[in-house]
Amino acid sequence: MLLFGLSVFVLFCLSAWAAPGNNTEEAGSPFLHFLTRYGRRYSPGSLEFQKREHFFQESIRRHEYLNSPVLAPYENNSAIYGINRFSDLSPEEFKAIYLQSKAVELPKYVTTSAKEAILPARFDWRDKNLVTPVRNQLSCGGCWAFSIVGGIESAYAINENLLEELSVQQVIDCSYEDNGCNGGSTINALHWLNKTRVKLVRASEYEFKAQTGICHYFPSSDFGVSIRDYKAYNFSDIEEEMMTQLINLGPLAATVDAVSWQDYLGGIIQYHCSSGEANHAVLITGFDRTGDIPYWIVKNSWGSTWGIDGYVHIKIGQNVCGIADTVSAARV
């Protein structure tokens, strides 16, 4: 009931913001508030200012569409869409900057045990302090590297009881099967790591630059984490088995359709993943089946101010956003 009220409030506000006459000349302009909140520096009256204001108004109309009860009937914990730091980007710009992961067709997972595993109602590797903090990929299309490195960090912590932040920049610069900040594949990155046995150094030693650079090498005596193998499967139609693998292997990297995530504020995504292709890589850290709608707990790489402290919740059971199609986990 509370979330229903929140949905109505969001729709009311969006309608008011999009109403005729609400332009930047008026006091309390939503666009001016947006510029102040997110530190944008567009010169008033310039073509850039006008373009960004147009995209902002388009985003408000898009939010009305996404929050429409016709498209997504009000249910407990339904996702809410609204103004965030991406609201002055066109959908094309957003996709070009942030959605740069490529999907790889994987074999279907085949269950080897006749005995069905007993799953807990809720499980999250964060509860065991085995997941590093949310990072921000900025304008670098390296989500594929953030996803894989996050999984390796947790796998190492599970084995060694020591949580280390490892270098994403090292993977961006050195994974020759990928294109750095211009995009890549979680599976290609795992294949490169497994083939070369490269040791990932600490993030503090090889800092993130938000652009592709020259690959740096480190002496074998230095600290580093290498992988010894990886698993990669398609779990569509068998998401319960995917939960079992998450518990057994650690957080799972996944490639998803995240076009609608440009406007995500919170709640459980159940609809609107409609681009028809996977384009973004994330890390699944857990699941929650205690409520009416079971959901995956998914770590993103757009900073902690996006979504639910940097996370998104996605409904379990219908392969929403293609979350079960391209799933992998490293073994260290």
Automatic annotation (TrEMBL):
Keywords: Disulfide bond, Glycoprotein, Hydrolase, Lysosome, Protease, Signal, Thiol protease, Zymogen
Domain of life of the source: Eukaryota
Localization per record: Lysosome
Domain Cathepsin propeptide inhibitor: 31-94
Pfam families named among the record's database cross-references: Inhibitor_I29, Peptidase_C1
The UniProt record lists the keyword Lyase: no
First-level EC class: hydrolase
Alphabetical list of SMART domains matching this protein: Inhibitor_I29 (SM00848), Pept_C1 (SM00645)
One cellular component (GO) term of this entry: lysosome
Reactions the enzyme catalyzes: The recombinant human enzyme hydrolyzes synthetic endopeptidase substrates including Z-Phe-Arg-NHMec and Z-Arg-Arg-NHMec
Annotated ranges, domain Peptidase C1A papain C-terminal: 119-331
EC number from the UniProt entry: 3.4.22.42
Single GO MF descriptor: cysteine-type peptidase activity
A biological process from GO: proteolysis
Signal peptide: 1-18
Described function: Proteolytic enzyme possibly involved in normal cellular protein degradation and turnover.
PANTHER family membership: CYSTEINE PROTEASE FAMILY C1-RELATED
Family: Belongs to the peptidase C1 family.
Name of protein: Cathepsin O
Native organism taxonomy: Eukaryota, Metazoa, Chordata, Craniata, Vertebrata
